[in-house]
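$ ./design --mode recover --in tokens.txt
reading tokens...
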């Protein structure tokens, strides 16, 4: 085969008719262009006209120097399917360490994937298979992934690892991780393994959107626990919505997240923790200028990190649990996080505490923030059923109710014949709208907001169109909402805090009615040692400025209003 610098796919046997299997022709073309590039060092391009190109039962093994360019989203579509190979994952293109020996000295270089769609809805494996991605390349040098629409894959949509000198831009990932129940590896919209190139990986992820994906919208994950967490990774101007987690840092160093939106994610908008394959949390990251709003669980969840980490100039609002939650998961780093910085953030109208510290902090700096009107989950216990009660796919309405607007946000709603109580569960279960179905046909879902008569409910899982896994309850269904917790504060310390710097914050409640009970609460299990608390406005909270169930030890406390 003659190997031109640019090849039209139709000229080399690809039909694009939505029926014929185009994989063999594409594989033959990629191999020919890859051989030519290896021979003369000149990269090649496959141009794919509009059409629907079926990739059936096997992925295409990709070659260095071969680019794939379509005619645009909605015009050029690669439809993945595995009807003849139910155990076979079928990404469009793959090149991996385990299957193909990919590595620093055996990598894919100088490739562009641009202007096409990947439809993964035709792949169904007998068991969840982490490699059932849209794209699955490892060790890419000087890559560019531009203007791609990847959707409905069984596992991660864009699942490429170890990207050096690479740009990922304008990728839209929707409803990926279709077979991931939320507890497996992968299952993300955009999932990028890091660390393979050493201490610096130059990667920019920009202007991407990830919605309704099974686990993360966008995440970075250290792949070997003996590797150094890499620097050089930036996530800019991205949007994540309705995923289990919005953006996660599971093992990078100095990750920069700027100008992003993280909305309506089920567990947290932004997460740092030990949930990755190596149980290594990120460190040294900086999150600035982001809107982290309306997540079903927490706005920011940070843990299993030695620090430092900084959050500056973000809006963290209307989340169903905490605005900021410091915590540690079992299995990851448990040492105190050092040099955590919360500066000039607007943390308001979250359902529980604005800032909650449940893991040790050393020398945190919390200054210049507006921490106001939190503790919105203030409505008392409620029960109902019978006439006037009806359920929609994502709602429950009781025409006879008179609830405090927003007062049930984040609560677990139990609907069913027995109407049993709903005690506390772990954070993932509470935030994830998972279901409890028993002999009495009871179902438990999560409230994301409410008016005086209507509860808005979280989907049963990311990407779902209903909160009800067993079907929408009929008219008159009995329901129960638990009581509100107390206290609900601007800043709660429930772990060891040593030498904090808390200065110049406005920690008050301007709401009507007031719902944030205290500005600062040191819980009985906490220790607060040394540091400085000064120049803060603690006035205007519903109960009192401060509550000390454990007395602070030492430090300077001065010039605080309230």
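writing sequence...
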């Amino acid at each position: 085969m003659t190997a031109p610098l640019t090849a039209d796919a139709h000229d080399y046997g690809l039909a694009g008719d939505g029926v014929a299997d185009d994989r063999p022709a594409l594989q033959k073309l990629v191999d020919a262009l890859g051989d030519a590039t290896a021979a003369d060092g000149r990269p090649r391009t496959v141009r794919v006209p509009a059409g629907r190109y079926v990739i059936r039962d096997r992925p295409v093994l990709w070659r260095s120097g071969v680019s794939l360019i379509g005619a645009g989203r909605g015009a050029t579509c690669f439809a993945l399917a595995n009807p003849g190979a139910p155990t076979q994952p079928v990404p469009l293109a793959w090149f991996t360490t385990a299957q193909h020996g990919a590595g620093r000295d055996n990598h894919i270089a100088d490739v562009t994937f641009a202007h096409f769609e990947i439809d993964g809805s035709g792949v169904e494996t007998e068991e969840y298979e982490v490699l059932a991605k849209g794209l699955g390349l490892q060790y890419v040098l000087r890559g560019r992934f531009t203007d791609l629409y990847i959707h409905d894959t069984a596992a991660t949509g864009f699942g490429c690892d170890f990207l050096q000198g690479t740009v990922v831009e304008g990728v839209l990932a929707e409803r990926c991780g279709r077979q991931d129940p939320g507890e497996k590896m992968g299952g993300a919209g955009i999932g990028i393994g890091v660390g393979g190139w050493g201490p610096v990986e130059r990667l920019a992820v920009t202007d991407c959107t990830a919605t309704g994906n099974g686990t993360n919208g966008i995440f970075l994950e250290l792949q070997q626990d003996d590797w150094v967490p890499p620097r050089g990774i930036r996530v800019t101007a991205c949007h994540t919505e309705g995923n289990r987690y919005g953006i996660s840092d599971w093992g990078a160093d100095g990750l920069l997240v700027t100008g992003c939106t993280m909305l309506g994610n089920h567990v947290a908008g932004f997460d740092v923790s030990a949930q990755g394959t190596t149980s290594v949390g990120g460190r040294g990251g900086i999150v600035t200028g982001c809107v982290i709003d309306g997540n079903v669980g927490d706005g920011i969840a940070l843990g299993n990190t030695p620090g430092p980490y900084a959050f500056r100039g973000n809006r963290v609002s209307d989340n169903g649990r905490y605005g900021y939650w410091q915590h540690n998961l079992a299995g990851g780093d448990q040492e105190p996080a050092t040099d955590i910085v919360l500066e000039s953030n607007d943390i308001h109208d979250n359902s529980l505490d604005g800032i909650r510290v449940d893991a040790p902090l050393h020398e945190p700096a919390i200054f210049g923030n507006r921490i106001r009107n939190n503790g919105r989950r203030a409505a008392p216990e409620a029960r109902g059923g019978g006439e006037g009660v009806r359920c929609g796919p994502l709602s429950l309405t009781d025409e006879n109710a008179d609830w405090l607007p927003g007062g049930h946000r984040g609560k677990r709603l139990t609907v069913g014949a027995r109407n049993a109580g709903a005690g506390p569960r772990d954070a993932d279960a509470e935030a994830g709208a998972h279901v409890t179905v028993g002999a009495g046909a009871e179902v438990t879902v999560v409230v994301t907001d409410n008016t005086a008569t209507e509860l808005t409910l979280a989907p049963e899982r990311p990407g779902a169109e209903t909160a009800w896994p067993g079907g929408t309850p009929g008219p008159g269904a009995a329901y129960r909402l638990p009581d509100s917790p107390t206290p609900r504060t601007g800043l709660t310390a429930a772990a060891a805090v040593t030498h904090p710097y808390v200065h110049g914050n406005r920690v008050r409640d301007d709401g009507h009615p007031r719902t944030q009970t205290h500005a600062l609460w040191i819980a009985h299990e906490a220790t607060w040692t040394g540091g400085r608390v000064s120049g803060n406005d603690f006035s205007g909270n519903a109960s009192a400025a401060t509550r000390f169930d454990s007395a602070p030890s030492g430090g300077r406390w001065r010039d605080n209003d309230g």
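exit 0
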